[in-house]
Design brief:
Layout: H1 7-25, H2 32-39, H3 43-49, H4 53-75, H5 82-99, H6 101-110, H7 118-137, H8 145-174, H9 181-200
Helix pairs in contact: 1-2, 1-4, 1-6, 2-3, 4-5, 4-7, 5-6, 5-7, 5-8, 5-9, 7-8, 8-9
Domain HTH tetR-type: 8-68
Protein name: TetR family transcriptional regulator
DNA-binding region: 31-50
């Protein structure tokens, strides 16, 4: 007779299965019976742990947010330059997408869906604000006060450009494994840090 799982262990198992199902189908097409069947349990047992699909998704999404923000915080080292911090953020996202493909699929599917993506929108906004702040910080010491104020007002407009282009590029790279990760990561960092104008002029960051 198989050993009965503890409530905590069973809950963790159900959330892992739900992560895969939400990543594969998306919130709207995933039903509780899909999760129950994939976990090998009854739907009634699933409802003992999660009262609704909305609650289940919210907890799965919160786990993703906690995990990824923790990883991003770990590379935001005190004393690092703005470029080093941006590079660490980019590398961490590539690491996460590679190591956690189901979680990455959930992020990409639901990041901009207001009806289901509350927790993930928080992740998006926090990441974008941090990245925009790093980009602006390199010029704060040389800008006149009026130019600095203009840049601060511009910062919120950079957020969707930064996360949108970077997240899309990482997803594209996952679908094109023939492209070396180093090349894709370098291109992402060049684009964020230098911008199209400087790239068109042939400028690139010194990558290993």
């Amino acid at each position: 007779m198989a050993k009965r799982l503890s409530a905590a262990t069973r809950r963790d198992q159900l959330m892992r299965v739900a992560l895969t199902e939400f990543g594969r189908r998306g919130f709207h097409l995933t039903q509780m019976e899909h999760v129950a069947a994939a976990a090998g349990v009854s739907k009634a047992l699933l409802y003992q742990h999660f009262e609704s699909k909305e609650q289940l998704f919210a907890e799965v999404a919160q786990n993703i947010v906690d995990d990824l923000t923790g990883r991003l915080s770990a590379v935001d080292v005190e004393g690092a330059t703005s470029l080093e911090r941006i590079s660490g953020m980019v590398g961490t996202l590539f690491d996460y997408a590679t190591a956690e493909p189901d979680a990455w699929a959930v992020i990409i599917r639901h990041l901009d869906k207001p009806e289901v993506g509350v927790e993930l929108r928080e992740l998006r906004d926090r990441f974008g604000e941090a990245a925009a702040g790093r980009l602006l910080s390199r010029r704060r010491k040389v800008l006149a006060p009026e130019e600095l104020a203009k840049n601060e007002r511009r910062a919120p407009l950079l957020i969707p450009l930064i996360y949108g282009s970077l997240f899309s590029q990482i997803s594209w790279w996952l679908e094109h494994p023939e492209v070396p990760r180093g090349r894709a990561e370098s291109a992402a960092l060049d684009f964020i840090w230098l911008g199209l104008d400087r790239l068109r002029e042939g400028e690139h960051l010194p990558h290993p």
